[in-house]
Amino acid sequence: MSDPLWTLDAFAEAAGGRIKGEADAEITGISIDSRSLEAGDAFIAIKGDRFDGHDYVAAALEAGAGVAVVAESKLSELPEDGRYVVVADPLEAMRQLGIAARARTNARIIAVTGSVGKTGTKEALRLTLEQSGKVHASVASFNNHWGVPLTLARMPADTEYGVFEIGMNHHGEITPLVKMVRPHVAIITTVQPVHLEFFASVEKIAQAKAEIFEGLEPDGIAILNKDNRQYDLLRFLATTAGVSRVQTFGLDPSADSHVENVIRYAGGSSVDASILGTEITYKVGAPGKHVVKNSLAVLTAVHDVGADLAKAGLALDSMKPPKGRGEVSRLMTSGGAFDLVDESYNANPASMRAAISVIGETPVTRPGRRIAVIGDMRELGAEADTLHAELLAPITEAQIDAVYCAGPHMHALWQRLPQQLRSHYSEDAKDLEDVILRDVRPGDVVMIKGSLGTRMGPLVEALKKEYPPADDTAAA
User: Fold this and answer.
1) Beta-carbon neighbour count of residue 179 at 10 Å?
2) Measured at the alpha carbon of residue 18, what is the angle toward residues 12 and 22, in degrees to the nearest 5?
3) Given this model, what pLDDT does residue 82 score?
């Protein structure tokens, strides 16, 4: 039987709270959502923008929570017979739990940030490091002021490798998070024009991403994208922050880890690379030049934390894009199959260009077409219309056959599109549904992408509902 995640006494001490009621002596997990909580979990009643966890304490206890972490000021409103760790502020208590969890482990820790590719890189690190030892990593995109401390607090004491995703959309957000994580290795995948609503320039974004250097452990390593236009600035900021070891990755042959040859195929790539001077051949089980590039950063970090590089390379072949981030489904129409690329999780100019590039690399059997169904990219400020209009270049380069646009900013692109590429435009994504369901045909490759607020995800679900996956059809 494995050790508990926390004993109650150690948990209460780390959280800075007092125990009230008959709480379980051992805590097996930590949750902030009463709907997904499992028996034995500690439920932390944090207050968010829309919900207050204290409103769900009774439900959490009923669901089997071993204990609930609650605010002293809310105690009188909660069930009298509950089992509690009472604190001044549950969110601050979760931060303190995260700090304590980091202090008690000897794990080698990797932190990942960047404008694009954070989650995919984090998941690739999880996959590759699992070949060498016990890994703890962020679930989903738990990369903000509550996601990072929650992930830390959930880290078992005997973890050998920890992987943390750190995000931001304002200056100053990364610093407190990375100082909790205290990584031995920090990766910046790339810096691109995202969140321009909150930043005056891409250089300002680079400075905010560079906050990750502030939490590096002594003699820690920064891994930077040498192909990125902000590389020189990031390297300068790393040096200014006292980072003595900087490693580079990219297609540039002068990078410490670089590609020597790539063969692309449907759904992935075969790569010959040099990783810090070691020659390695491996396959990546997800499509896209950006995925290949980020795999270099992954393998560089694997080397840096002392894990098995050869086993890591073999593991990358089983890498699959997560839902909404490049997941490919083969769907059946009455006349044959078409491919659906689900990129609906989010979008910015860099990730949009990458997704368009991926379908440009995807083989198409005529009369099948390469189809881009794209919605507004949010948080781009005054440059929004210009950045949308500039998507014409990657669309042309990728030889896209048909474009469907949704959102007021996408109208700037729609106006620039050649007539033969214009399929349909609407201000709301939902108004594209009937048109797309009617228009798809066998042999098509359909990519759907847009910012979360544009709500492109329901278009993906509508296609999957109307046209069953090919493997389901075969089983039937």
Assistant:
1) 14
2) 85
3) 95
Residues 6+ away with beta carbon under 8 Å from 458: 429, 430, 433
Instruction: Note whether 429 and 455 are within 8 A (CB).
Output: yes
| Residue 473 confidence (pLDDT) | 37
Q: Is 179 left (phi over 0), alpha (psi -120 to 50) or beta?
A: alpha
Strands 268-275 and 135-137: unpaired
Give 244's Cβ-side CA count (13 Å radius). 3
Write down the pLDDT at residue 363. Answer: 83
Whether cis (ω within 30° of 0) applies to the bond prior to 367 is yes
Torsional sign, CA 145, 147, 148, 150: positive
CA-based nearest residue to 291, from 158, 127, 72, 435: 127
Q: Is the pLDDT of residue 474 over 50?
A: no
Question: In the CATH scheme, what is the code of domain 327-475?
Answer: 3.90.190.20
- Respond yes or no on whether the N-terminal peptide bond of residue 90 is cis (omega within 30° of 0): no
**What secondary structure does DSSP assign to 111-175, as a single string?**
EEE-SS-HHHHHHHHHHHHTTTS-EEE--TT--STTHHHHHHHT--TT-SEEEEE---SSTTSHH
pLDDT tens per residue across span 228-237: 999 999 999 9
User: Across residues 17-33, what is the average pLDDT?
Assistant: 95
pLDDT at 2 over 60: yes
DSSP secondary structure letter of residue 469: B
Contact 208, 169 (CB under 8 A): no
CA angle 296, 131, 36 (to 5 degrees): 100
| pLDDT greater than 50 at residue 475 | no
Per-domain boundaries in the chain: 6-88, 105-318, 327-475
**Does residue 76 or residue 200 have the better pLDDT?**
76
What CATH number belongs to 6-88? 3.40.1390.10
Query: β-strands 67-71, 84-87: how paired?
Result: parallel
Residues 6 or more apart from 351 whose CB is under 8 A from it? 116, 117, 343, 449
- Let me know how many helices (H) and strands (E) the chain has, helices first: 17, 22
The pair of three-digit structure tokens given for residue 406, joined into one six-digit string: 């949704």
For domain 105-318, say whether CATH 1.10.1660.10 is its number: no
**What would the mean pLDDT of 309-320 be, rounded to a whole number?**
95
What the block records as the tokens of 143 is 């990369």
| CA-only gyration radius of the chain, Å | 24
Q: Which pair of structure tokens corresponds to residue 258?
A: 């670089």
- What are 84's two structure tokens? 């509690």
3-state SS of 172-195?
A: CCHHHHHHHHCCCEEEECCCCCCC
